[in-house]
Each structure stands twice: as structure tokens, then as C-alpha cells.
Write a structure and sequence with these properties.
Layout: H1 3-25, H2 30-45, E1 47-56, E2 61-67, E3 76-78, H3 84-91, E4 95-97, H4 103-109, E5 130-137, E6 140-150, H5 158-179, H6 187-191, H7 197-203, H8 212-218, H9 224-235, E7 248-249, H10 258-263, E8 266-270, E9 277-282, H11 288-298, E10 302-307, H12 310-316, H13 327-349, H14 360-375, E11 378-384, E12 392-398, E13 401-408, H15 410-423, E14 435-443, E15 446-457, E16 460-468, H16 483-492, E17 498-503, H17 510-521, E18 528-532, E19 542-546, H18 555-563, E20 569-572, H19 578-589, E21 593-598, H20 603-613, H21 617-623, E22 624-636, E23 642-645, H22 648-658, H23 662-665, E24 673-676, E25 688-699, H24 702-709, H25 714-723, H26 729-739, H27 744-750
Parallel strand pairs: 9-10, 17-21, 17-22, 18-19, 18-20, 20-21
Antiparallel strand pairs: 1-2, 1-6, 2-3, 4-5, 5-6, 7-8, 8-9, 11-12, 11-16, 12-13, 14-15, 15-16, 22-25, 23-24
Helix pairs in contact: 1-2, 1-5, 14-15, 18-19, 19-21, 20-25, 21-24, 24-25
């Protein structure tokens, strides 16, 4: 389609959308507008049918208030992950589904998701392609828009998805008026005259020791029932107060770390009558991330989302909130807020910290963060500033997954970041440009090597700290390589010269693997030089060099220096540019065994990436020994992983992804033993503990060298490699699923075809 045609099509779309908007806007309610806009909406998407669900505040379901056809009077589905519309309502995520009857496509979206054809059985209509998007306003879910089947028989596109989201936003604005929704959690209290806006502004200031609702009840004497009604009017979900005689902790809480629930302000309740239903009590029902996280724990249980006060949630968990019943304490807090308001202009003009970065509390705070990172075996620390006076979030990447650990009050955040910059020898006065540094610190008998990067954001300066691996390399036989892959690498190490690459994204364990390989070669008769940035793992017998790009001593310069020192084996930390890649290839052709890394997604892609850098294909093909691509995947907790018999459907999925050689390699069959996560104290009730590698080894051969000569495509190179025995990352992941190391859900997160 030409640019002119595209512009004309876009103009037509917005004219039709504007016409729909005008009809909806001038109608008393959406119910009055729907008969006039139904056909226009269908034409807008070239669709056969349309269903618009509305949320039912009193129950945990959505109801088809408006739909095409009268085959079924009403469709009512729960807000859960078991149905398509219910899943969209639960997760707040739009879906584009090519075939709703394809169970595998739905399972990839969520394991519980399925299509119920019962509503269509009495009719001749059959649903196939669907656009399903949430209808929301102010982030509050009000319904679901479901558009079914393109009339021309094709599938809906990403552009259709974008347009459906636009339409849902317009419908949400009308639903807000129809439902009588308020625009803010406490607007109802202001409308009733129970609270002044100025008082709410003061109470809403960030004072983490006192929740806003405690100030409203204790200081302003607003009944809890009125606050609950105000929250219901905004969030459109039921409000539950602290009623220990009526609601109890659900039995599933015994399987969940209570600290996790407290930190996420969640309580899982039962009414004591039916334990198959779980009441999710949360302080912010708009937070789909927290709700989806806890839904993964609930499994197939029906969940009802409710809103509650923070102190009530903590009481259900068995925690008592701080005693703030003394109104004088609350008044003093509000007095502090007034003083802060009066001096805010002066503070904004000053760069001086309210709290010194040398203050003992700040030093202890930073030390505590580092100790917790080491204790939790985290790889990274992310310090992310909040907007305005909102607290700064501290998240840690544990087993590859980010988890929020603490929040730093806004008054302490800048001082904490300054403390980190001081010990990293960075310029604390420079907050406009990114900076990189590192430091070493000994805390509680442990030495921590930390690499630091500061990044200016719109909310302030953020910091990322990576804990570097220190100490001895892990043994080569503990890399969890498949036997054939390990044997092939050992064969490559017997070559006196050539180049061997380990590739993958940042944090995939490339340096760990290379040092395990070097440990096999580290014998008194070999001279080994390494150039790294930074030097993380040290080994006796290796001559290890830290490159300094700022003074011109980069990888290329280090490699040239090494060649004058008569080495047998050379490790270059990363081939970042053409000069380094060319020098490494030349070194391998002149009698040296060269190891290096590259940031690529797969082993075959590495070849085309290096050729794109401009290295000579003939020299590279002669020098290449092999390429090992790797990823890290979460492993099942060894203390609580549970065996089960694989279903026929699961085995078919594994067979399809592994390929035709599965009969020879893995003997996949229904009833075979696989393992699933359950959760225990050891793994913090996640079901996973630690990570292991997935590997993809491409070995150079005569046909492979010919492909490099011809500068063939990635697909062609991959085809030859698989024919010669390469197991892809996904196949290696399935091998480790069968082995019992992990499950297929985790494999799919890091390895796809």
C-alpha cells in the first residue's frame, strides 16, 4: 500500500472513530448509544461480531451487557485466568488471538486459559480470531471489549489491536459516568463534605510510618465504613474491613512466606465456608502485577479481588500497625508537612542534602543493602528514584528475576546515592551524565566486588550495582553441560590454535564458563594471558590484566601486547569492534588458542555478526573452532520439587519443540516423570532456587567453513549446524526439563525458536 493510500485509510478510520465518539458522547448512557454505534464499530474493524462486557462490582464476574446477535441472552464469566475475557479483565492485558480454538496458542498466554465453545453450540456461528482489550478509566477496570472474526476471513493485526485499545479508552470514559466512578480514591469523602482537599493534600504526603487512611480515621475522625465506600466508588471492587469473626486467613497462606504478603500489602482470606474461593485483599486493586503474581500461587482456585485498608491487611497477616492513636503525634506529623510545604521552594533551589552522605544511618543503610544482596545471592541491585516525594525503590535481581526489597524515603535517597558514588570514586556533583565505577568492600567477613553505573532519569539519579563473582572458578564438570556438548568442547581444547567463542546477553554466565574452560588448560606447561573488564574471577597461574579504555589501553592494545609476551592461550574479554575481532583472528592463525565473548542471541548468528563487522571470511573460517551460546534458566528447588506423570498434551508440546530426533535422544512419551515447583522455606515459597545454563554448541567443519566463505544466511548456517549435531538452546532446555533441572515454563522465558 502506498503512503498516500495509507494516509487516506488512516483519515477514514479517524473519521469513523470520531463519528462513534460523537454518538456516544451525546447519548445519556452507553446503553442508549450502543444500538446507534454497533454497526459502525463492526465496520471500523471489518468484524463479524462484537461483545462488550461490564464489570459487576458486587461479584467477581463480568457480564455481556452489549453484544451482536440474540443467540444467547447473557454471558457471565468470572474475572480469572480461566476464560479469555476473564483473563483480560484479571490481568489488564490486551490479547490478539489468531485462533481461539488452538489450545496451544492459549496455553502460551497462560496455562489456565481455555475457550468455552458452549455458548456457540446452539448456533451456527464459530469464533476464530479475536481482539480482546480491557476497558478502563484512571487505571480502574470497568469492562472488556471483545471483537470477533474479521469478515474477510483474515486475522486481526497489531494495528487493529492499537485501534481497539483507542476505542476501549473512549468507552471507558462513558462507563465512568454510567457507573458513577470517582476520579480519585478519596474524592467521595470530599464530595460528601467529610474531608477538605487541603487536609487530604497534607495527609497524602509521603510519611511511611503512618498510612493515609490511619490519619483519616484517627485525626479527621472519618468512619472506616465511609473510607471503604470511597475506595469502592473509585476501584469498583468490594471493600473488606478487619472482621476476624467473618474472614479468616486462607489455608493456602501456610504455603506462602508471610513476609512476601506483608511487603506486597496482600492478604489471602476465606469466609470459612468455601476454601475453593480466595479473597485477595489488596490496598491497590489497580496493581495488576501484584495480582498476577499471587494468582500464579493460587492455581485453579477462584479469586475475588477486594480492596482494604493497609492496617487491616497487616492485621489479617498477624502484624500490628504502629500505635498512632495519640492525636498529638498525628498533629505533629502534619505540622512537619506544613513546614516542609513552606520551605519546599528553597529546598528545590539548593543542592545540599538534608541528610549527610557521611551520616551513620546512611552508611548503615547502604551496607545493609549490600549485605542483603549477598545473603539473597542477588546478581544486581537497582536503585530507582520515585517521582517527587515518592520513595525510592530498591530492587534486586535474584535468580534472574527482579524483586523489590525495600523502599528508601525520599529524604534519604540522594544521600544514599551520594554514599555509593563516594566509595565508587565518582563525581558526586555530576548528576546530568551517566558515570561508571566500582568498589571493593568487606562486610561481615565477606569481600564484595561491585561494579556501579549511575544513570540520570526524569525522576532523579538512578544507580545499578552488579556484584562481581569473586574467588575460584567453578569446575568444568559442574557447568551442567550435556554429555555430548562437554565431550565436544574437551575435543576442541586439544587444538593448539584457533578461536573459541562463548556468546549470549549480559549476565548469561559467559565469563564463568570461560574461566571454567581455562581451568582445564591451566597447567604449568602453558602460558595464559587474559584481558578483562573487569577482572572478576582470579586463578593462580594466569596473567590477568584489567583494561583501561579511558587511557587508551583497550582490548586491542592488550592483545597486541600479549603477542609480544609469547603466550600459548589468550582470553579477550569481549570482541566489541572490528579491530579487536581482526586482531583475535590473526592471533589464532599465528599459533595461539584464543577465547573471547560476544553479545549475540545464538551460535549461528555470531558468524554473521562477525562478518558484518568486516573481518575476512576466509581467515575467520580457518581460525574458528567453535561457538558456545548460552543462557541461564531458573532451576527447580531441590528441596520441594514434585514429580508427576507428564500428560499426552505436554509430551506433544515437548516433541514439537524438540524436533524429529526426540525419539533417538530423549524417548519422550506420555506418563514419563517430569517435575514441577511447589514452594518451601528454602526457596522462599517460589519453587525455584538457583540457575543453570542452557547451551548451544556450533562446531566448525568443512561444510561450515564453506558456509562462512559464502557468507550464508543465519538460517542456512543453523540448518547445517543442526544437521551436524548441534542441539539448540531450546532443545537443550527440554533435555534439562526431562532431566528434572527445570520446567518448560522457565525454558520458554529464555529460549525460543
Amino acid at each position: 500500500m502506498s503512503t498516500t493510500q495509507q494516509t487516506h485509510t488512516q483519515d477514514q478510520y479517524y473519521q469513523r472513530l470520531l463519528s462513534i465518539l460523537n454518538k456516544v458522547h451525546h447519548s445519556r448512557s452507553f446503553e442508549d448509544a450502543y444500538p446507534a454505534v454497533e454497526k459502525s464499530i463492526l465496520r471500523l474493524f471489518h468484524a463479524e461480531r462484537l461483545t462488550i462486557y461490564q464489570r459487576n462490582r458486587a461479584s467477581n464476574d463480568i457480564v455481556s451487557r452489549f453484544k451482536t446477535g440474540d443467540d444467547v441472552s447473557e454471558i457471565r464469566v468470572p474475572v480469572s485466568t480461566t476464560s479469555i475475557a476473564g483473563y483480560v479483565a484479571f490481568s489488564r492485558r490486551p490479547l490478539l488471538i489468531n485462533d481461539v480454538r488452538d489450545a496451544e496458542e492459549l496455553k502460551q498466554l497462560h496455562p489456565n486459559l481455555h475457550f468455552n465453545p458452549a455458548f456457540e453450540e446452539p448456533t451456527d456461528f464459530r469464533s476464530e480470531s479475536m481482539l480482546v482489550v480491557p476497558i478502563a478509566n484512571n487505571e480502574v477496570l470497568l469492562g472488556v471489549l471483545q471483537i470477533i472474526n474479521r469478515s474477510d476471513g483474515t486475522r486481526f493485526s497489531e494495528e487493529d489491536m492499537r485501534r481497539a485499545c483507542e476505542l476501549a479508552s473512549l468507552i471507558g470514559q462513558k462507563f465512568r459516568y454510567d457507573f458513577g466512578c470517582t476520579q480519585a480514591p478519596y474524592e467521595y469523602l470530599i464530595q460528601k463534605g467529610l474531608l477538605k482537599q487541603s487536609d487530604l493534600d497534607k495527609a497524602s504526603k509521603d510519611k511511611p510510618q503512618v498510612p493515609v487512611t490511619r490519619i483519616l480515621t484517627e485525626l479527621f475522625k472519618i468512619p472506616k465504613a465511609e473510607i471503604g465506600q470511597s475506595l469502592e466508588a473509585f476501584y469498583q471492587v468490594p471493600f473488606i474491613s478487619y472482621l476476624p469473626d467473618r474472614y479468616f486467613a486462607h489455608p493456602i497462606c501456610n504455603k506462602i512466606n508471610k513476609a512476601y504478603l506483608k511487603n506486597n500489602n496482600l492478604a489471602l482470606l476465606s469466609n470459612g465456608k468455601d476454601d475453593s474461593k480466595v479473597l485477595i485483599l489488596i490496598d491497590n486493586p489497580n496493581d495488576a502485577r501484584r495480582i498476577m503474581e499471587v494468582e500464579n500461587i493460587l492455581g485453579t482456585r477462584e479469586a475475588l479481588i477486594c480492596v482494604g485498608l493497609l492496617e487491616d491487611i497487616h492485621q489479617y497477616l498477624g502484624y500490628m500497625s504502629p500505635d498512632v492513636s495519640d492525636s498529638s503525634n498525628l498533629n505533629s506529623l502534619l505540622d512537619e508537612l506544613e513546614v516542609a510545604d513552606a520551605s519546599s521552594a528553597e529546598e528545590e533551589q539548593s543542592d545540599d542534602e538534608q541528610i549527610s552522605d557521611q551520616d551513620s544511618a546512611i552508611v548503615k543503610l547502604v551496607n545493609r543493602i549490600l549485605i542483603d544482596c549477598k545473603r539473597l545471592n542477588a546478581s544486581d541491585i537497582h536503585i530507582e528514584p520515585g517521582k517527587g516525594q515518592k520513595p525510592t525503590s530498591v530492587r534486586m535481581r535474584i535468580d534472574g528475576v527482579c524483586q523489590e526489597i525495600i523502599q528508601i524515603p525520599a529524604s534519604h535517597a540522594k544521600a544514599a546515592i551520594s554514599r555509593i558514588k563516594i566509595i565508587s570514586r565518582l563525581d558526586i556533583s555530576e548528576r546530568r551524565l551517566p558515570q561508571d565505577g566500582k568498589f571493593s568492600v568487606r562486610l561481615m567477613g565477606q569481600t564484595l566486588e561491585v561494579r556501579v553505573a549511575t544513570i540520570p532519569t526524569v525522576n532523579g539519579e538512578g544507580v545499578v550495582m552488579r556484584l562481581l563473582q569473586t574467588g575460584e572458578p567453578i569446575p568444568f564438570d559442574q557447568l551442567n553441560l550435556a554429555p555430548a556438548t562437554q565431550q565436544s568442547i574437551e575435543g576442541l581444547l586439544a587444538h593448539p590454535h584457533g578461536i573459541f567463542l562463548v556468546v549470549g546477553p549480559t549476565g548469561s554466565g559467559k565469563t564463568t564458563t570461560l574461566h571454567a574452560v581455562l581451568a582445564c588448560l591451566n597447567t604449568p606447561d602453558r602460558k595464559i594471558w587474559t584481558a578483562e573488564d573487569p577482572v572478576e574471577i582470579t586463578q593462580p597461574g594466569l596473567q590477568q590484566v584489567q583494561v583501561q579504555p579511558k587511557i587508551g589501553f583497550d582490548f586491542t592494545a592488550a592483545l597486541r601486547a600479549f603477542l609480544r609476551a609469547d603466550p600459548d592461550v589468550i582470553l579477550i574479554g569481549e570482541m566489541r569492534d572490528k579491530e579487536t575481532a581482526h586482531a583475535a583472528v590473526e592471533a589464532s592463525l599465528t599459533g595461539h588458542l584464543v577465547f573471547s565473548t560476544l553479545h549475540t542471541n545464538s551460535a549461528p548468528e555470531t558468524i554473521t555478526r562477525l562478518l558484518d563487522l568486516g573481518i575476512d571470511p576466509i581467515s575467520f573460517s580457518d581460525a574458528l573452532l567453535g561457538i558456545l551460546a548460552q543462557r541461564l534458566v531458573r532451576t527447580l528447588c531441590g528441596q520441594c520439587k514434585a514429580p508427576y506423570a507428564a500428560s499426552e498434551e505436554e509430551v506433544e508440546v515437548l516433541k514439537r519443540h524438540y524436533g524429529p530426533q526426540h525419539e533417538k535422544d530423549l524417548q519422550l512419551k506420555p506418563g514419563m516423570t517430569l517435575y514441577k515447583p511447589t514452594g518451601c522455606d528454602t526457596c522462599n515459597h517460589t519453587g525455584y532456587r538457583g540457575r543453570t545454563g542452557l547451551h548451544e554448541l556450533l562446531i566448525s567443519s568443512a561444510p561450515m567453513r564453506e558456509m562462512i566463505y559464502k557468507q550464508s544466511s543465519v538460517a542456512a548456517i543453523k540448518q547445517i549446524a543442526i544437521k551436524e549435531g548441534m542441539r539448540t538452546l531450546l532443545q537443550d532446555g527440554i533435555y534439562k526439563v526431562v532431566k528434572g533441572d527445570t520446567d518448560f515454563v522457565q525454558v520458554r522465558k529464555v529460549a525460543v525458536e
